[in-house]
Amino acid sequence: MNVKEARELAQKSMSKNRFQHTLGVVEMARKLAGLNAIELEKTLLAAYLHDLAKEVPLERQVELAREWGLLKYPEDETAPYVLHGPLAAYWLEKEKGLSPEIGAAIAHHTLGVPGMSRLEMLIYSADLVEPNRDFPEVDKLREALYDDLEKGTLACMEHTLNYLKQTKQIIHPLTLITYEDLKRRI
C-alpha cells in the first residue's frame, strides 16, 4: 500500500470530521518526522490509517477483537474505545500487506506499548497534539515534542493520565506500563 492509497482508503472509510482529524495527524506527523529523521512514507501511512476502525460500532469492535484474538486485558472490553488501533493494524497487515512496523504504530497509538519505537511515539503524540486539537496544554506539549520526541511523548502520556484521572475514566494498565517504561528509558 502506498501513501496515495492510504489517503484514499482513509477518506472513503471515515466521516468528514474523522478525516479532518486524520489530516491534522498527518500534518503533525510530517513535521515530527522531519525533526526526528523518521522515514516519511512509513510516517504518512501510519498517520493516514491510524483511525481506520475508529467509527466501527463499539459492539462490533469487541466482536472482531474477540474473533481475531486481540483482547488482552479486561479493560479492552470494559473500555472498548481502545480497540480501534489494534483492529485497524490487524486488518491492514492481513488484508493489505501493511508492514508490522507501521501496523505497530497504528495498534499502539491510543495506549502505547513498552519499548515504543520512535515511529510509535510519533503517531501516539501526533494524534494528541494535531493542529485541530485545542486544550490548555496543547502548545506546551507541541513544543516539548519539537524539542525532544521521547521527552515530549512522556509529557503527552502524563497529560493523558492526568486527564483520565481528573475525568474519572478507566486507565488502561497498558498505558501505565508504557508510561513507567518510557520514564525509565529517558
Topology:
Layout: H1 3-13, H2 16-36, H3 40-49, H4 58-67, H5 75-78, H6 84-96, H7 100-107, H8 118-129, H9 138-147, H10 149-166, H11 173-185
Helix pairs in contact: 1-3, 2-3, 2-8, 3-7, 3-8, 6-7, 7-8, 8-10, 9-10, 10-11
What report would you give on this structure?
- The chain contains eleven helices and no strands.
- The model has no long low-confidence stretch (mean pLDDT 97).
- It has a single domain (3-185), classed as Hypothetical protein af1432 (Orthogonal Bundle).
- 70% of the residues lie in helices and 0% in strands.
- By secondary structure, it is mostly helical.
- Helix 6 runs antiparallel to helix 7 (100-107) and helix 7 (100-107) packs parallel to helix 8.
Helical content class: 55-70%
Radius of gyration over C-alpha positions, nearest whole angstrom: 15 Å
State the fourth-level CATH superfamily: Hypothetical protein af1432
Order of SSEs, N→C?
HHHHHHHHHHH
The CATH topology assignment is: Hypothetical protein af1432
Count of alpha and pi helical runs: 11
Catalytic activity: P(1),P(4)-bis(5'-adenosyl) tetraphosphate + H2O = 2 ADP + 2 H(+)
Pfam family, one: HD
EC number: 3.6.1.41
Organism: Desulfitobacterium metallireducens DSM 15288
